[in-house]
Design brief:
Elements: E1 4-8, H1 15-29, E2 33-39, H2 56-94, E3 101-106, H3 109-116, E4 120-126, H4 141-149, E5 154-157, E6 167-170, H5 175-186, E7 195-200, H6 205-220, E8 225-230, H7 234-244, E9 249-253, H8 267-275, E10 280-283
Parallel strand pairs: 1-2, 1-4, 2-3, 4-5, 6-7, 6-9, 7-8, 9-10
Antiparallel strand pairs: 5-10
Helix pairs in contact: 1-2, 3-4, 5-6, 7-8
InterPro entries: Universal_stress_UspA, UspA
Family: Belongs to the universal stress protein A family.
Protein name: Universal stress protein
Length: 284
């Protein structure tokens, strides 16, 4: 199966949002939906020096017990994963998806997604995973690693689903964001959704020309589109525009050629990803 929407779920509070946004995307794209749960069987308990004054035999006995506990944890984790996948499948069916599939794999999430990359049209992930710190502005380490590794669009979603009604693309004229505009124009995911194009920078002839191209591309494809050139710091300017226009889905290039290029490897867009409470579609 190729060109599917794949949703990575775990035991985090974001899993319900992942399920609902994945179902929405699957229906809009008319693409198959697969829920993925990865069981990381790497031992969670470090092998400390347990010999001390209790004797080598006792140390070996304790290590055997730890190994048994790790095996039991792995079995529990697999069963929990199967129950989560079953619940996700039932939720997607309630959302209208005909035959969502489920897959459970052992390993790490990043390695698993790398193996499955050729099958993925769109990956849906929560902002944080179940092992992440629960501070509201923490960005899950898995998300950062996945974005660096995968060359597929990634939809990072909040806890609660809301049908997108206004979409904004952060545009800098780079190859990635130009492809993003073309994708946004053609993709059924955005049918009927007004599109906003925002350039953060000076009001120059080049920026105006880039904006005009983007708006024409969207309007020629039948979209309602408007745009703006905003001066100032990138994150602040984008968040201000988002608030002013009730934007409920952001589209950003993971790597570009301007200040926006620092996504996940610099401070500006990482901070924005941490603070926004709307889904963000990351493009490579």
């Amino acid at each position: 199966m190729t060109d599917q929407v794949m949703a990575a779920i775990d035991g985090s509070q974001f899993s319900e949002g992942v399920c609902d946004y994945a179902a929405w995307a699957s229906l809009a794209l008319e693409a198959p939906l697969t829920f993925l749960h990865v069981v990381d069987n790497h031992p969670q308990t470090a092998e400390a020096d347990l010999s001390g004054n209790i004797g080598l035999g006792s140390r070996e006995h304790l290590l055997e017990e730890l190994a048994t506990l790790d095996e039991q944890r792995a079995k529990v984790a697999q069963e929990q994963g199967r129950l989560m996948l079953k619940a996700a499948r039932e939720r997607a069916i309630e959302d209208g998806v005909a035959e969502p599939a489920t897959r459970q794999r052992n390993g790490t999430l990043v390695e698993t997604l790398e193996e499955l990359e050729s099958e993925i049209r769109l990956l849906v992930m929560g902002k944080r995973g179940e092992t992440a710190h629960q501070a509201s502005e923490h960005l899950g380490s898995n998300l950062e690693r996945v974005v660096r590794t995968l060359h597929r669009p990634i939809l990072m979603v909040p806890e609660t689903f809301k049908t997108p009604e206004q979409v904004m693309i952060a545009f800098d004229g780079s190859k990635t964001t130009r492809k993003g505009v073309e994708m946004l124009a053609k993709s059924p995911l955005f049918n009927g959704i007004p599109c906003h194009v925002v350039i953060v920078g000076a009001e120059t002839g080049d920026n105006r020309s880039q904006l005009d191209w983007a708006l024409k591309t969207l309007r020629d494809a039948g979209h309602e589109a408007e745009g703006a050139i905003r001066a100032g710091e990138v994150e602040e300017a984008l968040r201000t525009y988002q608030a002013e226009h009730d934007i409920d889905l952001l589209v950003m290039g993971a790597y570009g050629h301007s200040r926006i290029r620092h996504l996940l490897v610099g401070s500006t867009t990482t901070a924005m990803l941490r603070r926004v409470n709307v889904p963000v579609l990351l493009l490579r």
